[in-house]
Amino acid sequence: MNEHKQYVTLGVADAVFAIPVARVQEILEPQPTTRMPRAPSDFLGMIDVRGQNIPVVDLRLRLEMPGAEDTKDTRILVLDVATKTGMRKIALRADRVFEVAELDEAVLEPPAEVGRGWRSDCIEGVGRRNGGFVMVFDLDLLFHTADLSGAQAAA
């Protein structure tokens, strides 16, 4: 029996990604961030979510894509992520959120090996949906090297 798992699908540039629903705490509209000194370029700053300080990471910049201005479709996803210091909430800025979709885990394929220039370690698998590809994130690996020490100290 194939196991179907629910994912939140989101877009960055022309790519479609997926995050397990169980790891998504909420989806917010864009809001101003408070920049932190000497922060990495993909760390946009902190937001307040019901009294909790949450670091915001720009997914475009994290994936080494060109940055983009917010649009009416831009969203911030508040996620539960395992970091070097334990589980913590981290927000991810994405160009848009599409839907909650079911993907069959049995048919997820490993990401393609294309050489040293492309880091696919944060991609758990690649599925197909609506005639296109959906890349499923391994959130813990996506943030494994995140330097959010300033954000963690502020939280």
Automatic annotation (TrEMBL):
This is Chemotaxis protein CheW. It comes from the Bacteria. PANTHER family: CHEMOTAXIS PROTEIN CHEW, CHEMOTAXIS SENSOR HISTIDINE KINASE-RELATED. GO terms for biological process: chemotaxis; signal transduction. Pfam families: CheW. Signal peptide: none annotated. GO terms for cellular component: cytosol. Residues 4-148 form the CheW-like domain. InterPro entries: CheW (IPR039315), CheW-like_dom_sf (IPR036061), CheW-lke_dom (IPR002545).
